[in-house]
Amino acid sequence: MRIVIVGGVAGGMSAATRLRRLDESAEITVVERSGYVSFANCGLPYHVGGVIEKRSALLLQTPESLYERFRIDVRVGTEAVSIDREAKQVTVRDVETREESVLPYDKLILSPGAKPVLPPIPGIERALPLRNIEDTDAMVAAIENSKTAVVIGGGFIGLEVAENLLHLGMKVTLVEAMDQVMAPLDPEMVAPVHRRLRSGGIDLRLGSGVTAIGERDVTLADGSSVPADVVVASIGVRPEVGLAREAGLKIGERGGITVDERQLTSDPSIYAVGDAVEKSDALGESPILVPLANTANLQGRRVADDIAGRGRPARGVMGTAIVGVLGLQVAVVGMNEKRLRSAGRPYRAIHTHPGSHAGYYPGATTMALKLLVDPETDEILGAQGVGEDGVDKRIDVIATAMAGGLKASDLAELELAYAPPFGSAKDAVNMLGFVAENRATGWEKCKQWHEVAEAQNDGWTVVDVRTPREFEAGAIPGAINIPVDELRERLGELPDGPLLLHCGVGIRSHVAYSALKESGRQIANLDGGYTTWWAGTHFAS
Fold first, then answer.
1. Would you tell me how many other CB atoms lie within 10 Å of the CB of residue 285?
2. Cβ–Cβ < 8 Å for 85, 107
3. Phi and psi (nearest 5°) for 90?
4. Pairing mode, if any, of strands 461-464 and 480-481?
C-alpha cells in the first residue's frame, strides 16, 4: 500500500511511525514544506527565552533517522501543490529548485497544520510569528541586542513568548484587543493572571488593539505608542486548508477540513488530522477548532489504525490545556461560562480556593478552582484552575472524570493519592464534589459574584462573617460584619429580609448558613466568597 502524508510534526509523523509499526510492507512518504519534519513546537517559546538552551533539543527526528529506524521516505523542503483525486496523485514541488514531481497514493493523509493570523495593518510585515523552527531562528536573531518587545495577542503562545522575552531582560508589552488574556478563562478566573503579569514586570494593555507597526514602535487603538525593537504576532491561527479546498474537499463552517469519526474527509481515500481539521465537541453538537498537540498526535495514531484495519471512532475533544505564566499554572477543560451562555445552556457554577496541599505542611499555596455543572443532570461541563502548584493534576483528574462519564457529585467519592506534601485528606477535587452534592440536593442555595449588586437592589443584606480585621481590609459595599463565631449570640442584629452570607472563600459562610438554615430566614451563600467577588469585579485592573 502506498501512503502519502502531507505535513509532519505531531499529526503527520504520529501517523507515519504508527503505520510502520502496524505494516512493515507499506510504502510511506512524508512531504514537509519546512526544513524540519519532527520538532517540539510547544517548546519553541522556551528556546527563544533561553530556558531550553540547545536548539538541537527541539529537533526530535530527522529524515535520516526516520529512514534508518522506520524506512520512511521523508522529504523536507517539499510542498504539496495539488491533488488529483481521480488519479490518486499528489503533485509536489521542491521549494528551492521549484522542480515538480508526482506521488501516487492509495491513501492520503493531510496534516498541513494551521497558519498564523496576521491582520492587514500597516507594518504587519515586521511582526514575527512562531510556528516552526524557521520562525524560531528568525525570532532569536531579531531579539539579539534588542531591548523592547511588543507581543500582540494574549493567548497561550502570546503569554509564553512574553514571559520568555521578559526572562531575557527585555521590556515587554503585551497587547490584547479584548478585555482579558486567556479567552478560555472566565473573568473572575483571569484576574490573578492579570495581576501576576503586571507584578512580574509586563506592561499589560487590555481592550486596545494594534493599529500600526512602525520601525521602532507600535501604535495602539487608544492612540498611545509603545516602543518595540521586536514585534511578535500571537493573535491566533487559522486552519491551513488551501490544498484541501482546491481539491474539492469539504470545508466546514468553522473553516477547517470536515472529517468523520474515522478522520476521513469527503473523499474516502483521504484522511485529515491536526490543526487543519474541525473536531467533534465532546460537550456540544457544533464542530470546534482546537489546535492542541495531544489531539493531533492521537488523531494521527487513529488514522494509522484505521488504514491498518484496526480503527476505532475518534473521541470528542474537551480542549484540556495548560500554560505557565510567571510561576502560575493556568489550566482549563471543557466549556466556560461565556460559551455556555452563548449556547443558551443552563449551568451551575462552583468556585473554591483550596490549598495545593495540606496547609500545615510547608509550601502550600492557594488555588482558584471553578467547576461548571449541568443543574439537571449533574454532568460536568467544564473546569478552570489557576495557582502556583497543584492545578495541573486537579484539572487532569476532572478531565478524566468527564471522559469517564462521572457526575460532579461523584468527585466526592474519588480515592486520590494523599500525603501532606502532595494534597489534603479531603482533596481539592473531593471538595468540589462535596459542594456539587450540596447544590444538587438543594441543601444549600447560593449566589454568584456577578449577582451581588442585583441581590442588594432586591433587598438582600450582605452579611460578612469574616473577622473585623478582614472586613476593614476590604469589604463588599453595603455589607454588615458579624463574625461567624459570634453569629449565634448576635442573631438579633440581623436585619429583616433575605440574607446573603459570605466569608473569604465560602467555608466559614457555609458554617453560618448551616447555623441559620432552620431559622426560617431566606438565606444564600456567596459562591467562592469575597475572593471570587473581588476577582470578578476587578479582573481587568
1. 7
2. no
3. -115, 125
4. parallel
The confidence score (pLDDT) of residue 286 equals 85
Cα distances (Å, whole numbers) of residue 141 to 48, 133, 173: 9, 12, 19
Q: Confidence class of residue 75 from pLDDT cuts 50, 70 and 90?
A: very high
Cβ–Cβ < 8 Å for 410, 401: yes
The C-alpha cell of 372 is what?
Answer: 461548571
d(CA 45, CA 31): 25
Cα(357)–Cα(391) distance, rounded to whole angstroms? 11
CB-based burial of residue 156 (10 Å sphere; 0-12 exposed, 13-18 middle, 19+ buried)? buried
Candidates 428, 415, 416; CA nearest to 389 is 428
The structure's pTM equals: 0.93
Is the pLDDT at 535 greater than 80, yes or no? Answer: yes
Q: Amino acid letter at 189?
A: M
User: What pLDDT is attached to residue 292?
Assistant: 86
Which three cell numbers, joined as nine digits, stand for 126? Answer: 515586521
Q: What would the pLDDT profile of 455-509 be if each residue is shown by its tens digit?
A: 999 999 999 999 999 999 999 999 999 999 999 999 999 999 999 999 999 999 9
- What is the four-CA torsion angle of 494, 495, 498, 501, rounded to 10 degrees? -40
| Catalytic (active-site) positions | 42
Consecutive H or E run containing 30: strand 27-32
Quick one: pLDDT band at residue 539, thresholds 50, 70, 90? Answer: confident
Which tens digit of pLDDT belongs to each residue from 513-524?
999 998 989 999
For residue 434, the surrounding DSSP H or E stretch is: helix 428-440
Comparing CA positions, the residue from 288, 292, 394, 398 lying closest to residue 343 is: 288
* 3 state SS of 65: helix
Which of these, 148, 176, 158, 169, lies nearest to 50 by C-alpha position? 169
Alpha-carbon torsion, ordered 303, 308, 314, 319, to 10 deg: -40
CA gap 152, 159 in Å, rounded: 10
